[in-house]
Description:
five-stranded antiparallel beta sheet, 5 strands, single chain, alpha+beta, 137 residues, 23% helix
Amino acid sequence: MPYDWPVLDDDARIDGYHAHIYYDAATRAVAERVRAGIGARFAVRLGRWHDKPVGPHPVPMYQVAFAVEEFPLLVPWLMLHREGLSVLVHPETGNAYDDHAKFASWLGTPVALRLDTLPKGARPRSLSGRVLEEAGR
C-alpha cells in the first residue's frame, strides 16, 4: 500500500533547511574540517557543538541552518566533502516530526533518530506563510 504523502502547496512552505553533521570522538577532527569548509564557503548559520545526545539526535552532532537559495550550493558540496560523516538534511516546514521523519534526506549512513522526542503536527503560520514563533519568544 503506497504511503499517502502530504502535499506542500509550493516551495514557499519551506522556510529553510538544516543539515545535521554527525560525529564521534574518533571523527571530531573530521567534523571540524567539514565545519570550517562550510563556514568558509557558504552563507549559513553554524550551530553549537553537541557532544552528547540532544533532542532526536542520539549521537554528537552540530547543526547547519541555511536558506532555500543555499540548498543547491551546499548540499552538493556536502555530498563530495562530508569525509565519510553521516549528514541529515531536512526542510523547515513548521512540522518538526515530518521534517525529520518524512522529508529528510541522508548523506552517508542514516542514524536512527529518537523521533518520539519531536512534536507532531504543523506549527501555526502567519498569513504570509512564515512559521510563527511560540508566545514569549
